Amino acid sequence: MCGIVGYVGKKNAVQVVMQGLSRLEYRGYDSAGIAFLPNVGHATHLQKYQGQLSVLQNHIRELDPTAIMAIGHTRWATHGVPSDANAHPHKYGRVQVVHNGIIENYAHIKNQLLAEGHHFSSETDTEVIAHLIDQQLSLNKNPLDALRTVADILRGAYSLAISLDGDPHKLYFAKLRSPLLLGRSHDGVFIASDEFALVDFGPQVAELVDGDFGYISEDEVEIFSLVEKTTALRKLSWQPLRAVADQVSKGSFKHFMHKEIFEQPEAIKRALAGRVGDGKINLPGLGLDFSKAQVKRIHIVACGSAYYAGLVAKTDLEAMLKISVDVEIASEYRYRQTLTDEHTLVIAISQSGETADTLAAIEKALSLNASCMSICNVVGSAIWRKCEGSVGNLSLNAGPEISVASTKAFTSQIVVAKLLALALAKHLGGLSADEEVSKVRALLSLPHKITDLLGSDNMVRLLASNFIDHPKMLYIGRGDLYPIAYEGALKMKELAYIFAEGYPAGELKHGPIATVDSDMPVVVLFGNDDLMAKTLSNLSEVKARGAKIISIAPMNAELVQEDSDFFIGLDEVDPFVASLMSAVIVQLLAYHLCDLKGLDVDKPRNLAKSVTVE
Ligand code: M6R
Known about the structure:
This protein has 614 residues and is an alpha/beta fold. The protein is built from 18 helices and 26 strands. It is 35% helix and 23% strand. A hairpin with a 2-residue loop joins strand 12 and strand 13. The longest helix is centred in the last third of the chain and has 21 residues, at 433-453. The protein is globular and about 80 Å long. The chain starts with a strand and ends in an 18-residue tail after the last helix. The relative contact order is 0.09.
């Protein structure tokens, strides 16, 4: 999604902003732009182009720019196609603005402004903001009053950074339902939509909250709240920057995704650290007096891979707690009449903690008096903060995930949800001491087992090379492996642009098997459990229709091996954690196919890392 960086200070602001934007490239974008003020008394320069940041870089290099302040943006198109004209910053009159989010009432505002004689140079929702602020300034309002008035008019979500001609020492900002933070160092002050933008400058940072607006200058920050409706300054809490440059480097790997797949053993160790020990589960800090009288049902809300992690979690939670669990796609949940009430525990699963639909689902659940918690990778993110006042949060501790395709966050989500299921089952007296010991042991075995499994990396690449020209694929599995089939298919779609479907294996004969022929490779997922024989029958059904079979199965599954064209053997693990082993292989398969096809692994087309719009 879009990225914002702004800077006022002693360093060359153009360099700072361009460096910051380069750190945000991972979020996905289609155009980039910058507005900068070369020096006091000069006019603001504005450059913006469709395409990669390098296109913008090439254009501004010719200007040899130095500047005392700048705002920059990477855009992921929502309103209007990717184009130079639609790229940010947008300028009108004295105002330059960059914006993340969506202005829902922009069409209405634009029509009014058109009727008043305004001309627009883009198709974006954002441009109305520049017009509105300029209009307010023309009424002789000071910039902060202008911003306050405009914020009252706008509906939707925004984080904004604004520069004004004739006001060379200040950058203005406002935030509502879209992330924005400030940074300060000895030589200047920053605005950014993501702390990674600031890793090269090591400032202290302060998260903004909804309704914040104000300005920064080289050595000053003034911040007010639209929500509190007072004119008092709001106090900020400055913290050291959490992100470090190492976390946003590929190291010896060709792609972040490959690096993050290989980080999974460590990520899982971190997810378990301090939460299991001596064969016991211990999840401190959750403010939930969990009893069956209080919690009658559980809703899990999430999107994409996080939703599939939720489907795995449902299996564990229902089996251990004997409480009904619904896993809901957040974009549906938020608009549906749900049975959410004060007896519902709602669990949001999200890597970024920013996903707009998941955030809205949690807001809805809170408004219906549900107990809410998150399983989330970004401490302090919007979803995290919403849940803080309710049950609380379980951090994934997976470390930053840069590649758009989720890998280590996905497996960590499953692991943390398993910890939650165990802790709640123990609390309810539904977990025997023996079960606790064996399940904790199974979890603790994972980092080592996955490290060994990653030894199949080259073999999976070789296997992937057989499928480069296939336009479609099918993934099937049963039990807690059918969510992994969904995840495998999603990975294949988003990375290799192969149309892939995931299906519960038993559901094939109710329709999808009609698509199976010799052009359809089928990935069949097997666990070491009593569903193996059933899945083997499903394998036979697709094989009989000519499909090429790629089985991911326990090493000792000889019958499976005999019936498969390609076989990836998994070390034996406790069935409780088997889904995680298969998850790693489907990740590697999609990764290698994507790389072999020469596609952009870390930034697949049309996608963004954090989906902060509906
Ligand atoms: O940050 P979140 O976990 O809330 O993101 C949810 C989805 O957008 C995300 O999992 C998406 O499906 C990934 N591209 C999958 O690889």
